[in-house]
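Postdoc handover notes: sequence design on the structure in folder B. Input tokens:
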């Protein structure tokens, strides 16, 4: 069995969505003084590789801790959307996606993660692609960009209204290109919140 980590390392200096606060780590205990080390973290939920639940954009929507553990595991599919400004439905035509599967969109844009361009000119998902994903019964969609769309976030709302969870800021998706079959483990922290940091692992047989 082989495992591929698709998660950005969570650091204090990682980029954040424009006007969002940066995460902060504070050491509160020291091994030389207290006998152990301990850190405190202050962060927005939408930093680094994270998952959005319906409550993020839907009034009275579910938060992440309401989903059972099995919702975060499933058969994965990789959509190659490199060099696409708009990710459209035709990219799905040769994929055998079934209800309950997990779809990741590879744009290669993660390579700009630590540059000012990352939050400006990223490719977005079309309305037709979104509706096709919903019709197929996909339960989680993820991408190596900061968002599936831009303001007013119509695609966010359409996905979340239909109970499709969203993973943003994936990395290393190219490592899945040579693998036709893989499973995904996408476990967010069990916070009573609208989103949470997540560790995303592809499992290759």
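Designed sequence:
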């Amino acid at each position: 069995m082989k495992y591929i980590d698709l998660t950005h390392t969570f650091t204090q200096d990682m980029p954040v969505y424009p006007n969002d606060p940066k995460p902060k780590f504070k050491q509160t205990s020291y091994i030389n003084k207290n006998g152990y080390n301990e850190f405190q973290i202050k962060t927005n939920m939408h930093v680094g590789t994270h998952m959005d639940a319906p409550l993020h954009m839907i009034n009275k929507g579910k938060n992440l801790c309401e989903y059972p553990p099995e919702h975060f595991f499933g058969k994965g599919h990789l959509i190659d959307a490199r060099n696409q400004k708009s990710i459209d439905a035709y990219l799905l035509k040769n994929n055998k996606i079934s209800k309950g599967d997990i779809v990741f969109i590879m744009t290669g844009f993660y390579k700009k993660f630590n540059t000012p361009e990352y939050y400006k000119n990223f490719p977005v998902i079309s309305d037709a692609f979104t509706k096709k994903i919903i019709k197929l019964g996909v339960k989680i969609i993820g991408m190596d960009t900061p968002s599936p769309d831009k303001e007013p976030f119509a695609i966010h709302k359409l996905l979340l209204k239909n109970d499709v969870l969203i993973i943003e800021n994936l990395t290393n998706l190219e490592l899945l290109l040579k693998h036709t079959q893989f499973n995904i483990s996408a476990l967010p922290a069990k916070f009573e919140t609208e989103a949470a940091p997540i560790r995303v692992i592809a499992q290759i047989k």
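Context for whoever picks this up: Residues 11 and 23 are 8 Å apart (CA to CA). Don't rerun without checking with the PI first.
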